[in-house]
Amino acid sequence: MDVVRAHAASLSRDMSPARSSRALRALVRADAVRGEDVERNPELFFAAHRAMALRANDLGPGFWIRFTVHYNLCAGTVVALGSRAQRARLRGMATRGELGCFALTERLAGVNSGLVVRTTADWDHARKVFVINSGGGDGGVKNWISQGLVADVAVVVADLRVGGKSRGPHGFLVRLRQGMTRRLTRGVSVGDMGKKTTGNDLDNAWIRFDDVAVPHDALLSKYGGVDRKTGEYVTKKEGVRTMDMIGQRLYTGRVAVAQAALVFVRRLLDDTKRYSDQKMCTMRGASPALSDVPQLRALYQEGYATLDRLDAYVAGCEKELCTHLRAKTIPSAALTQAIAVAKIKAVETAIDLAFRLKQEVGSYALMSGTGFDNTDFLQCCKFAEGDSRILSQKLARDCFTAFQQNDLESATGVKSEIELDLCQRIDEVIKDARRANPRIDKIEAWDCAWRDVYRLAEVMCERIMHERAFKAETHRSKL
Ligand SMILES: Cc1cc2nc3c(=O)[nH]c(=O)nc-3n(C[C@H](O)[C@H](O)[C@H](O)COP(=O)(O)OP(=O)(O)OC[C@H]3O[C@@H](n4cnc5c(N)ncnc54)[C@H](O)[C@@H]3O)c2cc1C
């Protein structure tokens, strides 16, 4: 970890994308964190993410996103979905200091669409290659791909088609750039997404694939692949879909994002408090420090207490997830739900605290280098690895489905009076909407109850955090 911390400390502000990507190449070559660590040493993997997040207050979101895209989304997906030989390629990539990106999002698809994508990968049995295409129009063009303008390889999520039959989204490890000059692979075109309000040390690309032929071993095939001899699709593990395994990296990502948001806002509180402790105010009698004005003092107290509670909660999720990562097992529905809660609560709380702190510290909050200039880091946390709104919708939908099925056993279902009450209200609103318009579709009817839907998600978040804190406390007192 010392090498990672030293590397994080050495990063300078206002880096160009070229300099920032060179800095990541150097870290990859140093081999202090390895692509494989997400499974072999997950504690190091998360600690390294936190070390990088500690610099986000002065660097902005760019380098942290670069880091997590390379280690979690790209290398992490190869580790989760790749065969032994494919995982071994990560070693060569590290020695050469090669960078990876993760191409999931399209103009009309992505995490929000449940990973369903328009990009296709057709198995061409005669040539023994997959042919990747973005398709007509621009709906299937990958966009917002972090590091896409410099990455050597990409994990491309595409709909695998074998003999014309769709097998759903699969991951392909595709070489984007070739040789010493890093020229683009034939059929790949890229462009810049344009200047952003923040994180311009990170390149974001759109990527188009036109008849890009990739070899048989580009398909990350641990769970499903194509038999090279017969050209048939083969399922390697019954009941495990490749798409679900792509989702696994979103769980590690969600824990890393939750921790990054908490690290960011704690540092914002620390730095601001250091300033307000020595900033004197007039007409304050015996307690002239800005930190002592009642609203700020209360905010610091509340802020640190809330962060302590959230840190402990997310650490609990991390610990449980690490056990699964090491054992290569799939987290339970309850842990998946707890991780979604970690992401929603950590990010929303961080945004709320940062905003309220900004209102209370006068001119300081406008100064460059205070961290307030980089609070859009939290904005990035909000939509990364599953948008907080979409996660909230899923929490509420799972609970409501259990309610409709009268399923009291489900780990993700109704667990309190208030949740039951909210489910009943949602049910009534949906029935009213159907009575008013019998042809109303499912989504429109559900949207009619949107306030109660988000309220239900919020109530569930609080209940789940409380339950897990209680369990942890009971466990500690038994020891
Ligand atoms: C800096 C940056 C880096 C990125 N890096 C990558 C990358 O490396 N690889 C990659 O694949 N993608 C990447 N992305 C894409 C990112 O994952 C998407 O931007 C994100 O999924 C949100 O999609 P969107 O911006 O199109 O939101 P939109 O779909 O336009 O939605 C906007 C907002 O509407 C709300 N919303 C949308 N749909 C629903 C719904 N069904 N119900 C309720 N509310 C809803 C949400 O609050 C959402 O934030 C990156 C994006 C950015 C900005």
Automatic annotation (TrEMBL):
GO biological process, one term: fatty acid beta-oxidation using acyl-CoA oxidase
Keyword vocabulary terms for this entry: Flavoprotein
Keyword Flavoprotein: yes
InterPro entries: Acyl-CoA_Oxase/DH_mid-dom (IPR006091), Acyl-CoA_Oxase/DH_mid-dom_sf (IPR046373), Acyl-CoA_oxidase (IPR012258), AcylCo_DH-like_C (IPR036250), AcylCoA_DH/oxidase_NM_dom_sf (IPR009100)
Keyword Disulfide bond carried by entry: no
Residue ranges of domain Acyl-CoA oxidase/dehydrogenase middle in the record: 101-212
GO molecular function terms listed in the Swiss-Prot or TrEMBL record: acyl-CoA oxidase activity; FAD binding; fatty acid binding
GO CC terms: peroxisome
One protein family per Pfam: Acyl-CoA_dh_M
PANTHER family: ACYL-COENZYME A OXIDASE, ELECTRON TRANSPORT OXIDOREDUCTASE
Protein name, entry field: Acyl-CoA oxidase/dehydrogenase, central domain
Organism expressing this protein natively: Ostreococcus tauri
